[in-house]
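User
Take a look at the entry that follows and flag anything odd:
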Amino acid sequence: MNPYSWSFDPSARVINYKSRIQPDSYSFYNTLLSNISRSFLIPFFNNLKIRGKGYYVYKNFRNTITHQLGHSHRTYIYSYFLTVRFLSKTTVLLFGLSKKDVFLVSSKVRASKYMNIFTGRGVRFSKQVVYKKTGKVSSYR
């Protein structure tokens, strides 16, 4: 006799799991299954801030991110499984269900224009602290 029973309800799209074993013996598996199911429900977020004159980022209806960051050409970054929202003119919010996809796309946007250590212009993560380096002229003043 099988101590476990599984059933799937297609109308409600719910997986039912029942066990005749004591709760102490399968609490590890119960928490593991709940963590796996919860990972599909919790989205991952990442904020990017853009600083500089004439720098802008926009997207089309297919969530293709295009930016103009001081280059003579445009670079297209495709984000198939993400949603891109603009919180302000200089702040971009990326969110999706996969942590890998969110950080891969945000690192591609950030790698296109790193922060300049002297002026502080470029793309950075929202909570990233950037310290400006003193230049030759300003160190003598």
